[in-house]
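Quick one: structure tokens for this chain, please?
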Amino acid sequence: MASGFGDMQSLLKQAQDMQRRMQETTRALSERVLEGSSGGGAVKAYVNGNQELQSVKIDKAAVDPDDVETLEDLVTTAVRQALVAAKELRDAETSKVTGGMNLPGLGF
């Protein structure tokens, strides 16, 4: 019976360690900035590794008051591209901690 309790303690310790490492990973990801661009670089979007939009930069040449729809499309494309890059980075970094397992309840 005692060995079963020891196994449970070991499992709990491993889970706590994994949770700590995930929190460290989340913090580190918040400091990484990824870029998405469109229109040949006329529009750039920057997101952090936690998929949070940080900023959008628009070249003045991309601004045409008579064609707002194109600018909207360029911004949308740049943001989506940056978010995809951030998701891929987050997935790769998270996988390093979890060993590729999908662990519900850890909030990641």
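The mean pLDDT is 89.
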